[in-house]
Amino acid sequence: METGDRLPIRGGETLASAMKQERRWRSHHPKSSSSSSASQSSRGPLVMGFLSCLAWLYVAGRLWQDAENRLLLSDLLQKNSGHLPKVLTVEDKLLNLGCKEIGRKTVEAEMDLTLAKSQGYLRGNVTSSEKKLLAVVGVYTGFGSRIKRNIFRGSWMPRGDALRKLEERGVVIRFVIGRSANRGDSLDRNIDDENRRTKDFLILESHEEAAEELPRKAKFFFSSAVESWDAEFYVKVDDNINLDLNGLIEILESRRGGHGLYMGCMKSGVVISEEGRQWYEPEWWKFGEAKSYFRHAAGSLTILSNNLARYININSASLQTYAHDDTSVGSWMIGLDATYVDDDHLCCSSSRQEKVCSMA
């Protein structure tokens, strides 16, 4: 109770008598007490309502401001949507750099290159200004065939200056041999010494010289010969035959300019499927129920034109070899547009007098 609403205590009155007088006074003045308490109780809701209004106005203002900002941003995006930078793809970037057309031409060039490789048209380290040779003749030999080599050098094969003059006429002749299984041993050193004196070897550095490696030797020979000389023909000759060199040159001259020529004494034969027998073919099951070899040139003398030899060089890593070098070469020719030339003059075991080769 506020002091303004209480009765004053007179001197000499006790507290009890004063409280009685106040109760009597309140009973006679009820409006004054109730109005005071009512005024106090009505202030709380008014304050809470005022604060609620302020909070509502603040939230509404923020929402209105956010809405205005969103509307402004939306208008800006709509106005500038036509001017937004385009997301560039890789093709767009290449096109801007002028690379797309170059890339297309590169792909076309690679396709043409692959086609040329498959057809054996590519040239190695030979320039267009060099005169093409007529033939490269490779005579197979081994580490123990030194006597045979000397016999050939004294008979049909020129040596020394005569060999150089023959090359000037367009015919290169080389003994073909690989390397020993034990690189750098006496076998390799003997061949190197002999080659320094005679200069008539084609040494296949990547080939291991062994009887069972003859089919692979054919790949290495044709590849190495193509990379070393640009010739019309590449001739593989065994070391157990004698050549009529002039007769061979005459045949090759008559075929000069021929494309895709596969020449030799063509034959076929039975595939030996019994292991342990001579001429056993481990891949016999690939030749069908008839067990017969396809047509191929006999291994004693095989002639390939330039593009066929280059095909072997380019694709040598993926070419399948069989038990024998002649059937291996024949298998490589099957899928090509090759012209088979079966010439009796090239049959070394034939009884014909006009043949260009004979068994030694």
If you had to describe this structure to a student in words, what would you say it looks like?
The protein is of the alpha/beta class. The protein is 46% helix and 16% strand. The protein contains eleven helices and nine strands. It has helices spanning 15-28, 30-80, 90-96, 99-118, 146-153, 161-168, 186-198, 214-228, 245-254, 306-315, 325-334, and strands at residues 133-140, 171-179, 201-208, 231-237, 241-243, 261-267, 296-305, 339-342, 357-359. The strands form two sheets. It has a seven-stranded mixed beta sheet with strand order 3-2-1-4-7-6-8, with helices on both faces. A two-stranded antiparallel sheet has the order 5-9. Helix 8 packs across helix 10 and helix 8 packs across helix 11 (325-334). The chain is rod-shaped and about 170 Å long. The model is unreliable at 123-129 (pLDDT under 50).
Assign a percent range to the helix content: 40-55%
Instruction: Note the overall shape.
Output: rod-shaped
Strand content: 15-25%
For the residues shown, what is the average pLDDT? 81
Number of helices: 11
Output the helix-strand order.
Answer: HHHHEHHEHEHEEHEEHHEE
> How many β-strands, per DSSP?
9
Largest sheet entry: 7 strands, mixed
- Class by SSE composition: alpha/beta
In which order are the strands of the major sheet placed? 3-2-1-4-7-6-8
Alpha-carbon distance between the termini?
A: 149 Å
The parts where pLDDT drops under 50 for at least 5 residues are 123-129
Radius of gyration: 53 Å
